[in-house]
Amino acid sequence: MPNITVIFFFPKDGELVYFNDLEGLLQELECTHNPEEWRLCIDSSKFSLKMVLLNNGNIRPSIPIAQSVHMNIIYKNIGLLLKAVSY
Fold this sequence. Notes:
The protein has helices at about 5-10, 20-30, 75-85; strands at about 10-15, 15-20, 40-45, 50-55, 65-70.
């Protein structure tokens, strides 16, 4: 398993923890980045919001890219998440 510097890839901004370098993260996980092979999934519950990259065909594991335990799924929060992860 590669040695990943978690703080480098997942900074914290207030109540949001998110990735900031998808290319670098995928290199550390020994994956190639082909945008056609991945899709973005946004999941929410009453008290939390998270974003995950899912591999088409389930060949590779999902990669969590953002999470907040105090945000809910409203348009403003989705915009903040997308801006934070530069999607």
